[in-house]
């Protein structure tokens, strides 16, 4: 399991290495990531500033509690809100950035496929079919992200335990959703639906989490997502190809 997890981390690292071979193309992929990232950074700053007030609003049951339990609970709620915000930012940031920069990321995906050989043809269904499938998959992943986010928010309300378990679970769940989102180009080109994508990656969970958690943690670094987003698309293409080949399907 540890070896597979490290293999997944290595796939993300090889995606970063794509910067060396195709710097111009990767730089184009960083542009939409930077634009969307600037908007999200503003939102995170506002959330941090107003999180104490939001925590008070979200915990009216603590109004009659004695100190220090009231303050401890609301501090935990404030941290949980920020953690929930960061988690949702990572989830939605990837989906929105992929949508905004679709032409750039599709070129990165295609270049990665051609570098590895036996690249698939154009995805079936044409432009409108791909658009409809992309929107449907994005909505499904968003619902999954919201459900996970609410669960982690509830965990984060537990003093001490929540502040340790919340970030760890957030990285694991966040990495899983990122892997599902970023492998979309490679799997869609092979006409593999989201349900089958989840099954294939689920059978290789440790490797998938290694890739996804690595991407998730780099996304948390200031400006990290700008550099990592195009690299993550390249790395996810390798992840999808590996899973596809091991499943015995035609590349």
Report the principal-axis shape: elongated
Class by SSE composition: mainly alpha
Point out poorly predicted stretches.
none
- Output the helix-strand order: HHHHHHHHHH
Summed over residues and divided by their number, the pLDDT gives a mean of 81
The strand count comes to: 0
Q: What proportion strand?
A: under 5%
Q: Sheet with the most strands? A: none
Rg (C-alpha, Å):
19 Å
Assembly type: single chain
Number of helices: 10
Q: Residue share in helices?
A: over 70%
Distance between the termini: 25 Å
What does this structure look like?
The chain has 251 residues and is mainly α. It has 10 helices and no strands. The chain is elongated.
Features:
251 residues; mainly alpha; elongated
Task: Give the gist of this structure.
With 251 residues, this protein is an all-alpha fold. 84% of the residues lie in helices and 0% in strands. The chain contains 10 helices and no strands.
